[in-house]
Sequence to fold (791 residues):
Amino acid sequence: MEMLWFWLVSVMVAIYVVMDGFDFGAGILHLFVAKSDTERREVLGAIGPLWDGNEVWLLAGGGAMFLAFPKVLASGFSGFYLAMFMVVWTLILRGISIEFRSHIQDGLWRGFWDGVFAFASILMPILLGAALGNVLRGVPVDGTGYFNIPLFTSFGVSNPVGILDWFTVLIGVFALVTIAAHGALFLAWKTEGPVHERVKGAARLLWPLVILLWLLSTVATRTVNPRIFSAFPHAPLAWLFFIVYLAGLALVFTGIRKERFLLAFLGSGAFIIGILATSAACVWPVMLRSTLDPAYDMTALNSSASSHGLSSGLGWWFIGFVIVLCYFANLFRIHRGKIKAAADGDGY
Amino acid sequence: MGDLLFWHRLQFGFTAAFHYLFPQLTMGLALLIVVLKTLARRTHNERYQELARFWIRVFGISFAVGVVTGIPMEFQFGTNWAQFSRHSGGVIGQTLAMEGMFAFFLESSFLALLVWGEKKISAGAHYAAAWALFIGSWLSGYFIIATNAFMQHPVGYTVGPDGTLQLASFWRFVLNPWAIVQYMHNMMGAVVTGAFVVAAVGAFWTLRKTHSEHARLNLKVGVITALLASILVAFPTGDMQGKVVAKYQPVTLAAMEGRFHSGTFAELSFIGQPEVAKRKLENPIQMPGVLSFIAYGTFSSNVKGLNEFPEDQWPTSIELLYYSFHIMAGLGTLFIALMLISALLLWKKKLDGAKPVLWLLMLAFPFPFIANTAGWMVAEMGRQPWLIYGLFRTSQGPSHLVHPGQAVFTSLGFAGLYVVLGLLFVFLVMREVFQGPHHTAAK
Fold:
């Protein structure tokens, strides 16, 4: 039961990264690939109807973690206190920049929100990547199940650690580039004309960089947390997801070469889900690794809610999940095809 | 440590109060948009359709601010109230997770269709999107109220081997009697807000002599809805809420009324200043027996005063609790009076020319926001000194390793960000109100 919830939480977080990832990717790129107001509205039109639903995966994933692993949520959220509020404020800025921009047709107003949108979209993947880096590196959680670390200390990976050090920043940069490359493929799929040509160029530029950073991050992770790699050979799920993400990567490059961008976008989704799921399979059952003593590790087994709570939650969760899939199928069906900014100024 | 608790409470209280300004409007408007679109379909009056479009635009702005200010609330359970989350997540995690799965996904996947999609989908599908937003936002309300109700009156839990609270009965927890009463009272309060705003815009256009047809329909729908909701928020739902408080939180009831001594034929105080140190209510203007009747249904019932309870069970800010309750109840009474007069004039077809009443209607719209905020302050300060009533004190709940330097930093950050958000919201909505309904004419 704990294992099932561990995977449900991991999968929801991975879906969040893939889904909201293309929103952030669009935000990172839009200043560069969309020059005029019409072009920017094309980019916003592609993600506008979707971003809010995508963001809910984060809240739903957080909710699932609250339900199943309240001790991990309490420890992690209060431990990463300042970084958490940066995430929250970034999400606030991103949300209103998309929603408020379209209300007034004025160059300054729209330019301002374009800037806010880009800023928030660049910051968020770095924060998410750094968060993953912290989970992989570990935090000084003690026997009481709590910790609190500053944003940065000496940028080294040994105690006293901070949220940002060379390793977590590296993972943050890897996330930023990957999310930008992921967003480029989404936009390449959904747009045409000059925007399409520019994002194609961006995708060709970014994906080799993703490979480079991926290799660097893998080597770095090995030095920071060797336990992950010793677990890998004995975790069949890790092998499975490893294959998923290699296949995803192959699809990305095939898709780009053959100009089949839906295929490439699905490949990059598989790459992201695969890489996160492989990490999850290797760290299982640890959710918060202690840098003080492995005995203090907070795991899915020692930090979960009661089995009655977990089984009650499972019943409604599956019903909810099926309904949610229907919503998204409907949403993508209605907004299928290439996006054109409405000539009468309606919409994003 | 005391300092830290203060900042955690201030931050949560401020961000929650600010956040709830928007959901109360969107939950109220969601119902009114469904009403307007239903009327449009029934009467084939294009004005209703145009009004619905106008309110959907206001709804969209308000919803966006509601979403972005709601995210911090979810995070703050973990960031600021870690010990509380650890202690009770095994129970309240259920409703908070359900809100995401059953309400947020529903709202978010239909929002863009409602706001921007009218030309993309059929009229029937757009009508369905309005219903989806109504159902989604009202469901969301229930999950939050059920979570709060557990803190007010914990049921359906058991204490686990490590001392934390765990779910014992899902249905007892979700169908907490406190939740059902509080939900009805709260939702009627939200409809009051939405309906007052609709009526105020109708009065504004009428007084400015613009959009006269839309203004008339705004007034009609707004005033009738506001009258019904103003009555329902007081009776039966407010009355039921009062009786639940009297039953499960008698010390809170005493503090709400500034009542220190016990006795039969308890007085309802209309006004007066509680002097807690001397344990008396100064300058009271009271009506005997009414409090007994409200709390227990007979004029002669004994209503216990604060003197009967040890001081460590007393709510921590009795003065603010007392005023919050009286502001809420006083405003609620005025709402009924104003809407009775307006409805009477509407029925006599004289409302359009009744300038003083139109001025009152136009200027009245902030007061339901105040009344709703005051109502939540009664609920939350009345719960003190408990975080989970009778089980877990507020002083046990905060993230103890977060230091005041961090909490003050984030509190100030929120203050700055929310001032900007509030100004932008007012600016954008005022712009819509001045432009009026015509410019959205579709098809």
Q: What stands out?
A: Strands of chain A lie at 286-288, 298-299. The mean pLDDT of chain A is 92. The longest strand of chain A covers residues 286-288. The radius of gyration of chain A is 20 Å.
